[in-house]
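Long-time lurker, first post. I've been practising inverse folding by hand and with some scripts of my own, and I keep getting stuck on stretches where the structure tokens seem ambiguous. Below is the full token string for one chain I'm working on. Before anyone asks, I'm not after the true native sequence, just a reasonable design that respects the backbone. If someone could post their per-position residues I'd love to compare against what I wrote down in my notebook.
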């Protein structure tokens, strides 16, 4: 499992209806993408949920590297590049994935939290804590799912969760969910 995200930070006066319209027109294009666990089409709007910026920042969990590479090098990602320029694409190795009690509900909010992997702590303990946090988040009321991943070039953990309500029990940056494409969600591995 691989996590991926790119973020397009837009001008403060950007009409975010353009992003909503873009997702409404094109979001379905990945609903059957081979190798994709899920893609959440995420947006932050300046002043909403405490966001200081306007941002379009999709988050992906991939079942296969081949699917991810096909998306980046042969597919729809070129549309982002053509319209907004080539953003930096962050990638993390998946550590844990858990379905929540509200797994079949529509997603309204996503929360993403990045944190450094603590120095001096054995790596097995860091991974075990990430799995525990994923299970805790997935067990909260209103959680659709939770995931954890690590960027070993920076030793950075990312915790991601989807929620059916606007007041999730998770710390981090909150995003509005515009659409979810989940052709391989049922094949995502549950933990290390």
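-- Answer (accepted) --
I ran through it position by position. Result:
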């Amino acid at each position: 499992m691989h996590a991926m995200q790119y973020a397009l930070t837009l001008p403060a006066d950007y009409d975010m209806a353009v992003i909503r319209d873009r997702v409404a027109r094109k979001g379905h294009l990945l609903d059957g993408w081979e190798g994709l666990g899920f893609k959440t089409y995420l947006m932050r709007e300046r002043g909403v949920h405490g966001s200081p910026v306007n941002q379009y920042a999709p988050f992906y969990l991939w079942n296969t590297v081949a699917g991810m590479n096909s998306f980046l090098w042969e597919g729809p990602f070129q549309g982002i590049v053509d319209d907004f320029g080539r953003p930096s694409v962050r990638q993390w190795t998946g550590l844990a994935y858990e379905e929540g009690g509200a797994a079949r509900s529509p997603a309204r909010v996503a929360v993403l939290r990045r944190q450094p992997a603590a120095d001096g702590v054995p790596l097995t303990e860091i991974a075990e804590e990430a799995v525990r946090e994923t299970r805790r988040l997935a067990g909260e009321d209103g959680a659709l799912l939770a995931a954890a991943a690590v960027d070993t070039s920076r030793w950075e953990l990312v915790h991601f969760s989807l929620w059916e309500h606007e007041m999730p029990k998770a710390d981090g940056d909150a995003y509005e969910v515009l659409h979810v494409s989940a052709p391989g969600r049922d094949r995502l591995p549950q933990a290390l």
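A couple of notes from the structure itself: The CA atoms of residues 30 and 181 lie 6 Å apart. The longest strand covers residues 89-99. Happy to go over any region you disagree with.
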